[in-house]
Amino acid sequence: MNRRFLWAAAALAAGPYLGTMAWTGTVRGEEAFYEQQQLEAGKYSVWLERGEGSYYMDMEDYLTGVAAMQIPADYEAEALKAQAIIARTYIRRQMEAAGTSEIAEAALDLDYPEEKQLKEMWGTAAFPAYFEKVEEAVRATEGRVLTYEGELIDPMFFRLSSGMTRSGDFLHPYFQNVDCPEDMEAADFEETRSFSYEEAAAAINSIPEGDTGPRQIAPQELPEGIQIISRDPAGYVEEIQIGGFVFTGEEIQYALGLSSSCFFAGASEEGLRFTVKGKGHGYGLSQYTANEKAKDGWTADDILGYFYKNIVISE
C-alpha cells in the first residue's frame, strides 16, 4: 500500500467530522450479567467501556449513533441509508480481521457519545426527529454490507470531492475515478488559506522525517522553492517538492490543516496562499454528491454502485 493510502486510511476512521461517535443511552447490568448481555446483543456486538461500567451493545443499535455523527442528519433518506451500509461494512470488516463477531469499541477507533452531544450538534428541538431518521436508515438496511469478490471492502468516504473521486491502488480496485460535478456547486467547495512564510515553514518542518532522513526548510525558500511534482487524475497532489525535499500531498495537507490535498500554492500579501478544493481524502463515496443523487431519486444501492465499482451489496 502506498503512502497516500496510509495517510487517507488514518483519516478514514475519523471521517469528515474527525471523530465518529454514537449515542450511549443507559448503562445496563452489572459484571455478573455480561454474558447475558452478549447473548441479548445479537449476532454482532460492540463492547463499550465507560467510567460508570462496561457493557455489550448490539451492532445495529450502535450503528445509529455512528451514522448520526458521520453524515448530516438533514441529508436525504437514501443518502443516510448508503452511509449506514458503509458504517456497517467498516465494523464488520474490523470484526472479520479480528476473527470475532464481538469487538471492543476501542478497536474500532470509534467513540459512542452521549445524547447531550447530539442535542448540541442538532439542537434539542431537532434531536428526536433527526435521531429517528438516522435510526430508520439503519433499520431499513439491517445486515447489508459491501463486498468485492466475496470480501468486505474498505468503505472509505469523505465529505466533498475536487470534482472527481480518486482511483485506488491494487488493494482497492473498487475505487475508480467518478465524476462529481455536483460537488463543485457546493458552497464550501473551495477555500483559501494564507500563512506567513515562518508559519508555513514551521508547520512543514513538523512533518516526521522521510525515507532519506530529516526534511527541514527555511522560510526564505518559500514560495520559489515549491514545485508540484505530480497530481493524480482527480487533481489531488501526489508529490510536492519544497526546498529540495519531497513530501506527499497528504503530508502537506495535514501539516497545514488544509481541507484536502487538492491544493494550489502561490505568493500572497500575507506570505504563502493555498487554494484548496474539496473536503477529505477523495477516496470512495462523496457524501455531498450522494445526497444530490438522492434528491434526484437515486436509491442507496444506486449511490453505492456509482462510487464503489463492481461491488455486491449483500446480507
Binned, the helix content reads 25-40%
Radius of gyration: 21 Å
Given the structure, what is the number of helices? 11
Physical arrangement of strands within the biggest beta sheet: 2-1-3
Kindly name the structural category.
alpha+beta
Strand content: 15-25%
The main pleated sheet reads as:
3 strands, mixed
Multimerization state: single chain
Distance between the first and last residues' Cα:
28 Å
Detail the poorly predicted runs.
3-36
Which descriptor suits the 3D outline? Answer: globular
Helix and strand run: HHEEHHEHHHEEEEHEEEHEEEHHE
Give the strand tally: 14
At a glance:
This protein is of the alpha+beta class. The protein has helices at residues 3-12, 34-41, 59-70, 77-98, 105-108, 115-122, 127-140, 197-205, 249-256, 287-295, 300-307; strands at residues 45-50, 53-58, 102-104, 145-148, 151-152, 157-158, 190-195, 226-231, 237-242, 245-248, 263-267, 272-277, 285-286, 312-314. The chain contains eleven helices and 14 strands.
